[in-house]
Amino acid sequence: MSEQPYTTVIGLEVHVQLSTESKLFCRCNTKFGAEPNTQTCPVCIGMPGSLPVMNRRAYELSLKTAVALNCTIPEFTKWDRKQYYYPDLPKGYQISQFDLPMSADGYLEISDPKDKFAPKRVGIIRAHLEEDAGKSVHDEAAGKADSEIDLNRTGTPLLEIVSQPDMRSAAEAKAFLQELKLLLTYIDVSDCNMQEGSLRVDANVNLHIEKDGKVIATPIVEIKNMNSFRAVERALEYEAPRQYREWQETGRQLGEAPKQTRGWDDVAGVTRGQRSKEESSDYRYFPDPDLAPVITSAAEVDVVRESLGELPADLRRRLSEGYSLSLYDADVIVNQGREFADYYLAVAGASGNPKSACNWVTGPLQRELKEREQTIDSFGLPAQRLAELIRAVDDGRLPSTRAPEAFQLMVDKGSDVAAALAELKIERVDETALVTLVQELLAANPKTVSDIQNGKFQAAASLIGQAKKKNPNVDPNRVRELAIELATSLQ
Amino acid sequence: MSIVDRSATELRKLLATGELTSIELTRACLERIERHDATIGAFLRVDAARALDQAAAIDRRRQAGEPLGPLAGLPVAVKDVLCDRDTITSCASRMLAEFRSPYDSTVVGKLKQADAVLIGRTNMDEFAMGGSTENSAFQPTRNPWDPTRTPGGSSGGSAAAVAARMAPLAIGTDTGGSIRQPAGLCGIVGMKPTYGRVSRFGLVAFASSLDQVGPFATTTEDAALLLEAISGHDPRDSTSINQPTPRYTESINKPLAGLKLGVVPEHFGAGLDPEVASSVRAAIEVYKSLGAEVKEVPLPHGKYGVAAYYVIAPSEASSNLARYDGVHFGFRADQSAALAELAAERQELIAAGKTAAADNVDAPLVRMYRSTREAGFGAEVKRRIMLGAYALSAGYYDAYYLKALKVRRLIRRDFDEAFQQVDLIVGPVTAGPAFKLGEMVDDPLAMYLVDLYTVSANLAGIPALSLPCGVTKAGLPIGLQLQAPPLAEERLLRGARMYEAATDWHTQRPSLGGAR
Fold first, then answer.
1. Residue B143 carries which DSSP code?
2. Any chain B CB within 8 A of the CB of A293?
3. Pair A89, A49: CB distance under 8 Å
4. Alpha-carbon torsion B227, B228, B229, B232, what sign?
5. pLDDT tens digits, residue range A78-114?
6. Which CATH code fits A431-489?
7. Between B485 and A5, whose confidence is greater?
8. Which residue ranges in chain B fall short of pLDDT 50?
9. Of A275, B251, B285, B463, which is the most exposed, with the fewest CB atoms less than 10 Å away?
């Protein structure tokens, strides 16, 4: 059987836990990691007679996110009950949003600085707010077949963001998730911690296979259980050829098989079929009569839009246009997160040298952070100090060759530039003194002089080491320049 | 006149002046319960010791000159559907037979705050589903006027308790008529306030968009007193209306000048008992004699009310009752029995060579759900869960649930238009007087039609009230229903009081085994 070209079609469903102090419909704490069932109350465990009351803050955060995702915000949104039986769903329904979500029709722009794919807009079908379920803990220890339920998470606000099937490769899917996470952290609506479950991703994927001038779509598979962006990327890279092989074997097209759910096994590096849903589930959605609809005026949306601050895409643009950084550099800085970008902006502003600031923060500074396993907000070198260092180099007080030493000292000892210069005994070398020094060296090295005079300018380099021995503060470039200039003038 | 025959308003005065103590009053009520409740079955639980303790504490505080709440020392019976942290809240269901809530419902909290004596918990149809109190998992309640008959339902226990003078006041809930209908059948006053006027927090939900808590009393003044104590905005209930509660007790005796009364022609159609019809017509004449202008107002969509109600209420109920699955609280069926049964089923199928079928028997969890709900719920509750789950199912939702919501809007619009022309609407509360116990238990549809005159107020969310307006030749009370626009409880009570002041039907009481 001949190989047919195919396109991988990917849509993502992302559940984001919003950074609220309390749950969506009660005042229980949402902090991760507490003892099981210690962050519960009659409302979130669904006791008879209890009633939900919407946490306004959760709605505000979801509104902020939806606006940042360029979504349309309808004036009217309501709550619906999604009904199913499961022990970690104490009410027998989840309060969610069905036909009138709080936002729809947005997009997120993604690109790859290394041009692995062309920049594109990924559509957002909708983003809606819902409460999380609890957690079932299945104790499979020998002799025990008990399942235990932890309801701490029950009622935690989740924003479900559903993308259009606009992504065409694992790399695009990963870029979408990275950009989404960056956006969410820039606007401070979620910590997006995948390990703690504050960001969960399911992927819907199928293939469009070109055959005999027609496009054949394969059945859609939903992939679950991916616990990192890398896992999403790997799962999708695995899944596309698997679906292709399956299509070759079965010939099954979209609509000829029910939607399958597969789980990603990160250790084995494969997706495995999970028990397929017998029929499409009937959740018997209906409007929750315990909650009032939420009305949001256009003016409120405008206020949110104005309060968003600069989003990652805008900042990238500003860095490349206003600070003359390459798109690649702008991307590196912005992708480190809001604090890092702010640090860069402070250094660039105070030093007046955005390019050098970029080199410092993306080079030595980033290396230092990595080595120390630190983030920028706990880093010992304030932006103002780094800016001073850049200024010292720019005005010649600090030879660029010695700048790394000074940087290291400032980081290690928390010193300022002046102290670092003093400790390293770095002084500005007076031009006349330097000329005298080079003249002496030339006099002592006639071979070098003649080499230079014969056009072998590289011979000048041999004087640099000698000059540094006499005075460690000399600027090697200047030594070289002077050597050439003076030797030539001796002719 | 025995002390229990006095109205709450009178008792309050006697308590205030010291002519009566709460202990004396509570004891009198307890004696009354002791004497008659074996027959009537109004109460599921009476905690005499607790009630007497509360009464004694209030008496002491009164003697010490401490400020007391508006219901200080008055016994109040509470339908067993409103959570009270000091007792079980069973909803007359096996499912919650042992359920103790760790919180007070807002209404019970307000009663405690008002220094009421919580004398006991009254019987009801299971989860408030029914119109005869025969759906209680524990006991039937009998009508004090004729123990072979129903007190109505679902708040039959509360209505019977007040009618039998076992308590001067009681709390009920009304989802489709569950306060007004039993009030009518028991010859007392019962009121359903505007949806949202009284908090639903801690009220175990039947149909959330329709449920409303309200008072039972022997007079409109007493109903006003109790309503005033339990009303008010509650931040814990998102559907609670944020409006101040008027002082109903202060205005109730002011007649409504220039009252325009609406009469709905459709209310007097086929099926209305002639004695009820003539009592209601007589009541309208009384109003005319009091200067009211009577006008016909159509409520054209009212005839679809019962149909819409029996889609919406069961739909919400099917969802509200999903939580009773044996996992987190309430009843759980015996699991070893259920698992043994499951194993036996599998064995049988395997022995018969039906291995595929054997693989398809319930998972243990599913069997736990099934056995728990099978044993925990009564027949009517299951019937409504099935009706509701069906109406909300994919493919049926539009035809049933959505259609019912449209009808609901039209009914509300009918009322809005009618209330442009009239201040109150007057009519029957039930088509006939109390029916015999067992008369309709095998005919759920006939039972549903009992709600004909009452469901529209719930669907529209408007306040409505039932008060005595006659007694049949057979000696059964007849109720008169008054309906008012949203939040017009004050008008409703004043309008009812006008009639009450001009008649003496409210002074009639059941003989309870004495000569009729």
1. B
2. no
3. no
4. positive
5. 999 999 999 999 999 999 999 999 999 999 999 987 8
6. 1.10.10
7. B485
8. 515-516
9. A275
Residue A60 tokens read as 């505000």
CB atoms within 10 A of CB A280: 9
Tokens of B104: 């007070």
DSSP 3-state of A438: helix
pTM of the model: 0.92
Please report residues of A whose CB lies closer than 8 A to that of B325. 85, 92
Q: A48 and B204: CB-CB below 8 Å?
A: yes
Q: With 80 as the cut, is the pLDDT of residue A139 above it?
A: no
Residue A142: pLDDT over 60: no
Distance CA A481, CA A462 (A): 12
**Of the listed B90, B105, B132, B154, which one is catalytic?**
B154
Candidates A367, A318, A374; CA nearest to A342 is A318
Closest by CA to B59, choosing from B112, B117, B121, is: B117
How many interface pairs between A and B have CB atoms less than 8 angstroms apart? 97
| Residue position matching structure tokens 């997160």 | A337
The backbone torsions φ and ψ at residue B494, rounded to the nearest 5 degrees and listed phi first, read -65, -40
CA B72 – CA B114 distance, rounded (Å): 6
What's the CATH number for B3-242+258-300+416-507? 3.90.1300.10
> Residue B406: which H helix or E strand, with range?
helix B403-421
Q: Exposed (0-12), middle (13-18) or buried (19+): which is B105, by Cβ within 10 Å?
A: buried
Residue A312: which residues within 8 A CB-CB, separation 6 or more?
A179, A182, A183, A186, A334, A335
The complex scores an ipTM of 0.95
How far apart (Å, rounded) are the C-alpha atoms in residues A361 and A383?
10
Residue count of chain B, please give it. Answer: 516
Contacts of A282 in chain B (CB under 8 A): 393-394
The residues, any chain, with a CB within 8 Å of residue B157's CB and separated by 6 or more, are: B41, B42, B43, B44, B77, B79, B80, B122, B123, B124, B133, B136, B141, B151
A52–B239 C-beta distance less than 8 A: no
DSSP string, A168-237: -SHHHHHHHHHHHHHHHHHTTS----TTTTSEEEEEEEEEEEEETTEEEEPPPEEEEEE-SHHHHHHHHH
Chain A residues in contact with B322 by the CB 8 A cut-off are 83, 85, 91-93
Residue B56 CA to residue B13 CA, distance in Å, equals: 18
| Closest-CA residue to B279 (of B107, B111, B109, B477) | B477
- Residue B470 identity: G
What is the arithmetic mean of pLDDT over A380-409?
Answer: 90
**For residue A310, what are its two tokens?**
């600069």
Which of A52, A85, A149 is facing B325, going by the closest CB pair? A85
State how far the Cα of B216 lies from the Cα of B464, in Å rounded to an integer.
Answer: 13
Domain with CATH 3.90.1300.10 in chain B: 3-242+258-300+416-507
Backbone conformation region of residue A233, classed left if phi is above 0, alpha if psi is from -120 to 50, else beta:
alpha
Residues of chain A with CATH 1.10.10: 431-489
pLDDT in tens, B184-228: 999 999 999 999 999 999 999 999 999 999 999 999 999 999 999
Please give the structure tokens belonging to residue B458.
Answer: 């719930």
Active site residue B178: yes
Q: Is B466 a catalytic residue?
A: no
* Closest listed residue to residue B118, CA positions, set B61, B48, B182, B181: B48
pLDDT in tens, B450-481: 889 999 999 999 999 999 999 999 999 999 99
Partner residue facing B325 (CB), from A92, A284, A289: A92
| Whether B99 contacts chain A with CB within 8 A | yes
**Are B261 and B482 a contacting pair, CB within 8 Å?**
no
